[in-house]
Amino acid sequence: MVRVRFAPSPTGTLHIGGVRTALYNYLLARQTGGQFILRIEDTDQTRFVPGAEEYIIEALRWVGLVPDEGVGFGGEYGPYRQSDRKAIYHQYAMELLERGHAYYAFDTPEELETKRAEIENFTYNCHTRNGLRNSLALSEAEVKALLEQGVPAVIRLKIEPGQRIVIQDLIRGEVQFQSDLLDDKVLLKADGMPTYHLANIVDDHLMKISHVIRGEEWLSSTAHHVLLYRGLGWEDTMPVFAHLPLILKPVGDGKLSKRDGAKFGFPVFPLSWDSEKEEERAMGFREAGFLPEAVVNFLALLGWHPEDEQEIFSMEQLIQAFSLEKINKGGARFDYEKAKWFNQKYIQSTDNKTLAQLMWPYVKAHEYDVCEEYLEQVAALMKERVTFIQDFVGQGQYLFETVATYDMEALSKKWKSSLAPVFERWIAAYEAAQEGTSIEQEEVFKAFVAEQGVKPGEMLPLLRLALAGTMKGPGVFELAATLGKEETLLRLNNFLKFCLTIETA
């Protein structure tokens, strides 16, 4: 069975690149009838941030990537939080020692710093370890005495020189490493906590992970991981590796960062992150007004290319079409305008009832007194014109408040004093007519202007200004039908009074 895992660290916000990694893992699991697992890798307690674990889970739920197993979801291979598995890692570190694939190192941070000052580009490896304070360089009696005295020690991976390590990566093909160039990674820290390298391998093996799909920044560590599998006798059950390309900055070189989001004014996290420190606060895609389906579609195509030129995919379509072999090796440039385009498309295809529910937080924030039925009408009226959910309220303010100001530049071009009596007669005609659909109201209007001998183009801009205060927005009669007869009449009368006032001013 295909078993994949998403294994973030709870060190703060979840980068959108992490969400893409989770997505690709999820798609493969669903496509193959496999399992998608959430594992929290919190071995580095110095970087632990309260609330980050809950943030990760909420973000996955929001984009619809609900794990089958993991922290908060249960499962038979738990615990799924690495800090709860400390004894397990110690057991396998001891096994590596016994097998001769690891050793104790007693070097203090100060001693290592001295070596770095003495040796340019110092690396703790097969070339330098015999001159350092470890169980390979010291006598058995010395090592025993240090351990009995409780001298702090780490356990390092022992890498033998002269080895060629070959990895078959599903995205990058064959990747080779020479062991002489690898450092002897710390596996178990002096406080008994494992490093990423040991915990990652042990967990993947015990949780029966079949595919490791992760960012390319981990490719350089994969040689160490292969050696750990060999050292523990697990090479036959080693998972398949696939290292994903980076998500790149919109312009320039390098990986997309939080700083880029702040610089260019777009989110790089799924959800907003609040903090007492202003520099740590971050806007999320959800709070920016994105639909989760749009974010998923956008991220799926950041690095993966389908067989054809199709761009809009439902989750089910992504599951059917996805292939690790179709992921590009090169980085994918983050295009925020494309993300906005996806969001527009998904808003347009979302039913009005759902959009009405999504509008509620913004409506409540402004304390607008409207019903859900009215919001559904607003959704129908505006969904072809907005980019974000909050635009329904922000751009359509005139749908919730009586117009208080008008576009004076447009008004000065469109208003003529000779139209005042015509406008007044239109108000009377509108009031006398039955409250009909937008089509029926337009028919009444056409008959009126024909009778009055004026062109529709002379009156329509004025009606738009009267109802919306701006020249932008939906059709005049669609707007009038949504506002209702009473509100429309109020706005028409207010507008006429305003125009007559400025004429006499």
Write a concise keyword list for the protein shown above:
single chain; 505 residues; mainly alpha; Rossmann fold; Glutamyl-tRNA Synthetase, domain 3; Helicase, Ruva Protein, domain 3; 4 domains; three-stranded parallel sheet; three-stranded antiparallel sheet; 12 strands; 44% helix; 9% strand
Q: What do we call the CATH homologous superfamily of the largest domain? A: HUPs
- The shape, in one word, is elongated
CA radius of gyration:
32 Å
Residues in β-strands, percent: 5-15%
The stretches of 5 or more residues where confidence is low (pLDDT under 50) are: none
Question: What is the annotated CATH architecture of the largest domain?
Answer: 3-Layer(aba) Sandwich
Quote the average pLDDT.
95
User: Class of the largest domain in CATH?
Assistant: Alpha Beta
Biggest beta sheet summary:
3 strands, parallel
Helix content: 40-55%
Total DSSP E strands: 12
The figure for the number of domains is 4
Distance between the termini: 81 Å
- The order of strands across the largest sheet is 1-2-3
CATH fold-type name of the largest domain: Rossmann fold
Kindly describe this structure.
The protein has 505 residues and is mainly alpha-helical. The protein has four domains: 3-82 and 246-337, HUPs (Rossmann fold, 3-Layer(aba) Sandwich); 85-244, Glutamyl-tRNA Synthetase, domain 3; 350-399, Helicase, Ruva Protein, domain 3, CATH 1.10.8; 408-504, Arc Repressor Mutant, subunit A. 44% of the residues lie in helices and 9% in strands. The protein has 20 helices and twelve strands. The protein has a three-stranded parallel sheet with strand order 1-2-3. Strands 4-5-8 form a three-stranded antiparallel sheet. The chain is elongated. It starts with a strand and ends with a helix. The model has no long low-confidence stretch (mean pLDDT 95).
